[in-house]
Amino acid sequence: MRNSTKILTAATAMLLAIPFTSALAQRRRGLVDVSPSSDRHGFWLNAGAGAGIENYRFDTGDWHEDQTSPSLWLGLGGTVNRHLRLGGEFNLWVHEHTDIASGLGVTETLGSAMLTGQIYPSRTLGFFIKGGLGISRSGSDISGPGGSVGETGFAGLAGVGYEIQLSRSVFLSPVISGLWHTSGDRNEPDGKLHERVWTIGVGVTVQPDRW
Predict the structure, then answer these.
(1) Which of 11, 58, 129, 162 would disulfide-bridge 190, Cβ 3.0–4.6 Å?
(2) pLDDT, tens digit, 9 for 90 and up, residues 157-202
(3) Residue 49 — φ and ψ, nearest 5°?
């Protein structure tokens, strides 16, 4: 009788332990394998286009009249944590027109390659602040004997945007940003060249790790 009581007690304890063990295993799997769909993590790729408002000046002059033309960008990188992304970005502003004096076609460009960072103040919201530093080139290509001219200098980028989730791994990203270019030598007759492009556009961000 005493042995039967011991066996019954042990069996009851085992039966009571099964739900607890199962729940603990499920909890561990959840912590390791499952992350909320709003989490930012892993590799990311962003491409976008918009309207770029450009103007420029030299040290000795005023800002020239604004010119509005297409502005494009492509960025990629990794996610440090839910509040910070780091990567690289290429920007290109292109303006085509006909020179009144010569009648030749002219393509003006401002391109840049930069290291960038995006800060997300909120863990759950898509708002972000963007910044970057790198190199840039401002140039003009003339369809004729004039050839091409350009200057390489330093670039800075600042902007804000918001990520709107379309699916688990795809986001729509409206952005407002400013790109600044500086090149040349202040000892030249006109001084340094200062050029800027304000862009209002929309990008698409993809996080392949969340597929």
Answers:
(1) 58
(2) 999 999 999 998 999 999 999 999 999 888 788 899 999 999 999 9
(3) -150, 160
